Amino acid sequence: MTLIGTARPDRTALPVRGAAPATTRAARVRHALPARLRHHPLTRPGALLALAVVVVVLAWALVPGAFTSHDPVTGVPADALAPPGAAHWFGTDHLGRDLFARTVHGTALSVRAALVAVAVAAVAGSAIGVVAGFVGGRVDDVLMRGTDVLLAVPNLLLSLAVVTVLGFGTLEVALAVGVASVATFARLMRGEVLRVRRATYVEAAHLAGAGRASVVVRHVLPNAAGPVLALTTVELGGVVLAVSALSFLGYGATPPTPEWGSLVAEGRNYLASAWWCSTLPGAVIAVVVLAVGRLGRAVGRPGRTAR
Questions:
Q1: How far is 59 from 289, CA to CA, in rounded Å?
Q2: In terms of Cα–Cα distance, which of 294, 292, 281, 291 is closest to 99?
Q3: pLDDT per residue over 25-80, tens digit each?
Q4: Would the pTM count as exceeding 0.85?
Q5: What DSSP string runs through 200-233?
Q6: Nearest 10 degrees: CA dihedral of 230, 231, 232, 238?
Q7: 92: β partners
Q8: Pick from 86, 78, 88: which is nearest to 276 by CA?
Q9: Distance CA 149, CA 6 (A)
Q10: Under 8 Å between Cβ of 50 and 289
Q11: 90: nearest Cα among 274, 287, 276
Q12: Measuring CA to CA, how many Å separate 286 from each of 41, 61, 173, 241, 292?
């Protein structure tokens, strides 16, 4: 007999054996991070996948021998135009050379050219932007009209004009692509300098007797460089594509040295019978460009502040 008014034990709070946990492992790890990192774009799955792709590409560039044992230059004629398989992951070209080995060994030249091009564009463009924004007047007018001319010419056409003057080679291609991207960095840096030079601390430095060079180095550049660095990461993907395009047109490294663009160009005559010769190296270029662009947007976009 049950007594009236007797409280029954509450069973709803007891754990049910075999029930799924309230939070998944990924959610627990995410909540364990600090609030600032928890909402940062770099912690999203797409950005993490892009970061993994970039890490693999950098490893290809630094230690290509750790990923393939095939010779990228010497081939086996009997294995010419072999399809992708266990022995040759990307298949072979018309000379029997392993395409995966050539893609991996060609990463160093392509990545080096892209980094040189971005460095040239960032340094030269930032210098032009700082001078134009800080000095102003006629100097600003002349420099900005010059950047307007560069912006009016398509980047690929301007790169072709520059590389024709400089000559063929990976370094020449990098310089040509860098020159074509100078105007974008110059415009951004000029805008940031115009914003920073009106700040209170810059006016205080002038009143304290600091020279122009000291004000630029100690106050203007550190506070104006953030957006330029973000633009560098965003532009890197486009620079990789531009370098590969010039290499595809034959302005890059001299054969048989492998380079991403030249690999696509070498296989275009065999698309009907050996689609992998151009498709797989081209897919690597596309994946790298997309990954670098995704990572650049994540780096350039600040994370949301947790409420």
A1: 16
A2: 281
A3: 545 545 555 555 555 666 788 889 999 999 999 999 999 999 999 999 988 999 99
A4: no
A5: HHHHHHHHTT--HHHHIIIIIHHHHHHHHHHHHH
A6: 130
A7: 98
A8: 88
A9: 89
A10: no
A11: 276
A12: 22, 17, 19, 8, 10
